[in-house]
Amino acid sequence: MDIFTIEQLAAQQAESGRLYLEFLRESSLSIGLYVLPPGGTDPQQPHSEDEVYYVISGSGQIRVGAEDSAVAAGAVVFVAAEVEHCFHSISEELRVLVFFAPAEYSLRKG
């Protein structure tokens, strides 16, 4: 059994100097913590797997395809594989749990 706390994950993510910290990986699923600062830029590209975002804290907007929507703590967003998406207009640091199924990049071609 693995148990994680957001505080521990946030400390590891900050220490890594990266926006994204993957903390669980199985063939069927991977999970990470994604942190974007206020005014920050979301550099991600479409993924080869479906993903779900759960916003732990913060606020901003997410664009999925051609649609924009506000997100804040408690929001859950589904993004289908290969769909363009990004967070933007971040007004308060976003902390987001990211769930990929199957595991991130496991379906990537090339």
Secondary structure elements and their pairing?
Layout: H1 6-16, E1 20-26, E2 29-36, E3 50-64, E4 67-72, E5 76-79, E6 85-101
Antiparallel strand pairs: 1-2, 2-6, 3-4, 3-5, 3-6
Describe this structure in words.
The chain is built from one helix and six strands. Strands 1, 2, 3, 4, 5 and 6 form a six-stranded antiparallel beta sheet that branches. Strand 3 (50-64) and strand 4 form a beta hairpin. It is globular, with a radius of gyration of 13 Å. It has one helix at residues 6-16, and strands at 20-26, 29-36, 50-64, 67-72, 76-79, 85-101. It is mostly beta strands and 110 residues long. It has one domain (6-101): Sandwich (Jelly Rolls), CATH 2.60.120.10.
Indicate the low-confidence ranges by residue numbers.
Answer: none
Decide which structural class fits the backbone. Answer: mainly beta
- CATH fourth-tier homologous superfamily: Jelly Rolls
Strand percentage, roughly? over 45%
Mean pLDDT: 94
Number of strands: 6
What are the defining features of this structure?
110 residues; mainly beta; Jelly Rolls; six-stranded antiparallel β-sheet; 1 helix; 6 strands; 10% helix; 52% strand
Brief sketch in words of this structure:
The chain is mainly β and 110 residues long. Helices cover 10% and strands 52% of the residues.
